[in-house]
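Contributing new records

If you add data, match the layout below exactly. Sequence lines come first and carry their own label; structure lines follow with theirs. Keep one chain per record. Anything else will be rejected by the validation script.
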Amino acid sequence: MNLFVFGLGFSGRTFAERRIARGDHMSGTVRSRDKAQALSAAGIAAHVFGPDGGDSTIDADLAASDALLISVPPGMSSDPVLKSYAAQIAAAPNLRWIGYLSTIGVYGDHGGAWIDEQTPTTPTHVRSIERADAEQAWLAFGNTNNIPVHVFRLAGIYGPGQSQLVQLARGTGRRIIKPGQVFNRIHVEDIARVLDASLERPRAGAIYNVTDNEPAPPQDVVTFAASLCGVEPPPEISLDDAGLTEMGRSFYAESKRVRNDLLRTELGVILAYPTYREGLTALRAAGEGPR
């Protein structure tokens, strides 16, 4: 299978490496020539794609693709991939699956209540509004061109090199307290697992919440990470005293518990890391966290 990934970042590269191990051909985009060269050396045909457009060699790989994953953020006025490559994607003769990585932020704030894929989107932050618009643009593109498009709404992503364990090792871990605050997370390997399952069972217009099974207060996750390392957790600090940037505070502005039942009932996915406990325990066993 030939797969193309717009945006070979944390999630996109994890998916690509998983598929290469299965014998698939992977190509995709990064934002710099140095990153493209490094990935090409690792077996991923990488091209440069940025605000000013992309390499001319992208067209050939798109034309040969069986599946396409979009893992780049939308712009303020439009999705950059659709803006630059809609015609090429529509003309790809073998393309049978498109996946768009979005965010559970499109649901907005629900005061800690449970929600699922049937919950209306009510985004409040600019980034989430842009994501919701991009979702609709891709779904409309799929309908117009008769190509199955799938939307994956991701929770907070963690995994190797990106977790509370790493923050503790760097001395940047904090236990910020906002009463009633809860949200879901998802291990990057489980994102790749969900994408694999969707490739096997495409359904045009499908929307999936890609989250773990246990929404939890962020301070509980930090405390558990510290316990795995045998260190004292950072002192508690209120949100008002944390001195967060506007973007940092935005992560605490919404609270919701997100159901992921559809992953299990429709795609048959069994998460490798159903809660943060399993995920952090595995990362600690791999050597992450304070020594």
